[in-house]
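user: can you give me the structure for this one chain? tokens are fine.
assistant: on it. calling the predictor now.
[tool input]
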Amino acid sequence: VMIKNSVIALITAAALAGIAAPAMAGTSLTETSDNDFDAAYVLTQVQDKGINASAVEEWGDYIVASVTDANGKQTLVYLTPVTLDVVNL
């Protein structure tokens, strides 16, 4: 009986942890309240980080920003969706 109660307690704890995980998934800087990608919002966030971006879009697991350097050359910069840190691919 004691083993049965322990198993039930472990299953209940695992189920509760599974319910809590999706609530934490919405902590990305690139997600709005309805989980749609808001390019204007993300572009502002990227520019606030000091990146001279003119456009952003989702690309797989990354955010891609069109960036103009000091010489006027346009390049693409890949960013993490959570922190908008530059990724070196």
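assistant: here you go. Strands lie at 53-59, 62-68, 74-79, 86-87. The radius of gyration is 20 Å.
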